[in-house]
Amino acid sequence: GNSVTQMEGPVTLSEEAFLTINCTYTATGYPSLFWYVQYPGEGLQLLLKATKADDKGSNKGFEATYRKETTSFHLEKGSVQVSDSAVYFCENEKLTFGTGTRLTIIP
Amino acid sequence: NAGVTQTPKFRVLKTGQSMTLLCAQDMNHEYMYWYRQDPGMGLRLIHYSVGEGTTAKGEVPDGYNVSRLKKQNFLLGLESAAPSQTSVYFCASSYSRGRTPQHFGDGTRLSIL
Lengths: 107, 113
Description:
The complex is a heterodimer. By secondary structure, chain A is mostly beta strands. In chain A, about 0% of the residues lie in helices and about 50% in strands. In chain A, the strands form 3 sheets. In chain A, strands 2, 5, 6, 10, 11 and 12 form a 6-stranded mixed sheet that branches. A 4-stranded antiparallel sheet of chain A has the order 3-9-8-7, with no helix packed on it. In chain A, strands 1-4 form a two-stranded antiparallel ribbon. Chain B starts with a strand and ends with a strand.
């Protein structure tokens, strides 16, 4: 089958904490993988992507590594800010999205 | 650069009414998509188009129709609205399917009473 399983939220962290949002996928072959971010009242925006195994996508301090051995694409950030509060979605290239993880950062 | 524009942004309908949601993109993308977003369910693909004049069913197509008469526009129609279609609808477009990221509009919040 073709699916994306994403860490359920909501997630609440203090400012400057370390963030991990888990994402695993099932698919045939090695699909491109994406993380999107959705701010309140807006559509999804691409955050980062990886197109092949061992690729690392990065943007705005966020990183995710495409790991084929664990079929995972976990999102990480070393020090979160209040402005990172949003909903994060993982997607594979088969147009399948995770259910979204709502992140709230407390000052 | 407008990107992907959705109209209207909000709408309230009565059960049984019909309406059309419009999506326009100015990036010359071949691929366009309609999704619905419901709490706890992420985004689900309703219909998509791989080019002008083409449409295809996604995961949840029932109760919706679409048309792509012009490359830049992708219309989503509800012929007879039902309360189960209350949702936030997002349109997206991409250069190719899968390997390139999607560009999303800001959404249409639709309530069916």
